[in-house]
Amino acid sequence: MKKALIKTLAVAALALAAFSAFAKPKTRTVAQIKKSKTINIAVFSDKKPFGYVDENGLYQGYDVYFAERIAKDLGVKVKYVPVEPAQRVEVLTTGKVDIVLANFTVTKERAEKVDFALPYMKVALGVVSNEKDPINTIDDLDGKTLIIAKGTTAETFFSEKYPNVKLLKFDQYADAYNALLDGRGAALSTDNTEVLAWALENKGFLVGSGVTSLGNLDTIAPAVAKGNKDLLNWLNSEIEKLGKENFFHADYEATLREVYGKDSDADSLVVEGGKL
After folding, report:
1. Looking at the predicted structure, is the pLDDT value of residue 130 above 50?
2. Where would a tag sit more exposed on the chain, N or C end, judged by fewer CB atoms within 10 A?
3. pTM of the prediction?
């Protein structure tokens, strides 16, 4: 009886250890990344102008410009991993990437699962609609269908605060925008920085005056696996260093100025040195 109990406890201990090893994120230190000569960074492939693949199959955008500088300062190459909005936590917890740079808005719920570095951008929510049937206020959405991407702050915001708005959800931004173009919803909501840019590039669509900045003013930051303090500390130091160069304003000029226009205000979006 005693031997059986000891054997049972031993098996249970082994199972617990195996589970703990499986559950623990596979993290890499800065030294390990440098030794491998490659850093794995998750970005969007379809969220222009922040992260997208161009006609030549190359990654471009505000987040990608930042990712390239991170790799340069580490002395490594970047391996880009395309990610859908709802997968951003998962790719970190499973060790598929070292950093997520995919327009990742900092929230309390997400911060329980990943570690966010200092912010490099600020954002709220916006709504884009067809100018023939414009959405100018949230009340205009009552009883109508709003298109959103799964796993985004837009999904959380409208689900919790406006249950009368019907949500049509997609995994990928490209599919969400195609649904708007096809008229499958009255409007689409995501970061205001993106819907404003998309409306400028797509004639016949607009961001109504009353839906240009919804919810809280949030920040966007790089994220690493929970507990990866080594890489987190390096990222924070990097962002502080880049702030002294006005790097993110240079990023804006290189990737966003053409989209938003010569009179656009970079300071409405850019965060330098992690300081709001």
Report:
1. yes
2. N
3. 0.85
